[in-house]
Structure to design on (227 residues):
């Protein structure tokens, strides 16, 4: 039973070829490209409004130097939201439940923010490792602690996204299995369990969007420290 619960997080294969690459490519195919017409469709207008509003909110804490990252961060946000939402459909695979993928997204972007800080303002970047006014005996300890906290950031980004999505998928599977089993013996309890399942599914839709936003927001804050 324990193995079957986690089978949904295994990367599907076809003729021995992992299909995770197809799952990652799918979000880009679903979004329509802007047309050359004077008036766009309602869907394109809604998509443009959402992207513009999100970009404005994303760039609020950043100065002009960080605005160069707008296209990258917005694309990452849309990419994560789409994969998280598609993973809630039945018989689908969620690539963002794989820690390797999330670390592959978090580590290069975090490292880029650190490199930018070390290149543009090395004194300020290194100053984060030692708070002002620290007593002399605590300086070595605080430098070690701040260095560990700096290098643990990409791991925290990847684990947060993976853990939240994995926990939600497991809860949905457990509650749906319980509702199916109780349907024949206790229909009233099964109906109550199904109601909880619907509410949990709505919660997971919100979690899928919020976790994608938190992922990109934390990257924005890391960028703000180094720009």
């Amino acid at each position: 039973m324990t193995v079957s619960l986690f089978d949904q997080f295994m990367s599907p294969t076809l003729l021995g070829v992992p299909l995770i690459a197809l799952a990652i490519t799918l979000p880009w195919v679903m979004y329509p490209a802007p047309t050359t017409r004077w008036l766009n469709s309602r869907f394109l207008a809604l998509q443009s409004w959402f992207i513009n509003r999100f970009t404005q909110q994303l760039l609020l804490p950043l100065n002009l130097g960080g605005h160069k990252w707008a296209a990258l961060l917005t694309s990452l946000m849309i990419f994560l939201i789409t994969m998280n939402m598609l993973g809630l459909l039945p018989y689908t695979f969620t690539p963002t439940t794989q820690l390797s993928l999330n670390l592959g997204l978090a580590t290069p972007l975090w490292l880029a923010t650190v490199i930018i800080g070390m290149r543009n303002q090395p004194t300020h970047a290194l100053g984060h490792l030692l708070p002002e006014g620290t007593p002399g005996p605590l300086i070595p300890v605080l430098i070690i602690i701040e260095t560990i906290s700096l290098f643990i950031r990409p791991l925290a980004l990847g684990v947060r996204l993976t853990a939240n999505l994995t926990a939600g998928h497991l809860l949905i599977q457990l509650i749906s299995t319980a509702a199916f089993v109780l349907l024949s013996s206790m229909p009233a309890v099964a109906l109550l369990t199904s109601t909880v399942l619907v509410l949990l599914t709505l919660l997971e839709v919100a979690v899928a969007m919020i976790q994608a936003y938190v992922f990109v927001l934390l990257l924005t804050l890391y960028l703000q420290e180094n720009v």
Q: What stands out?
A: The chain has one domain: 19-226. The chain has nine helices and two strands.
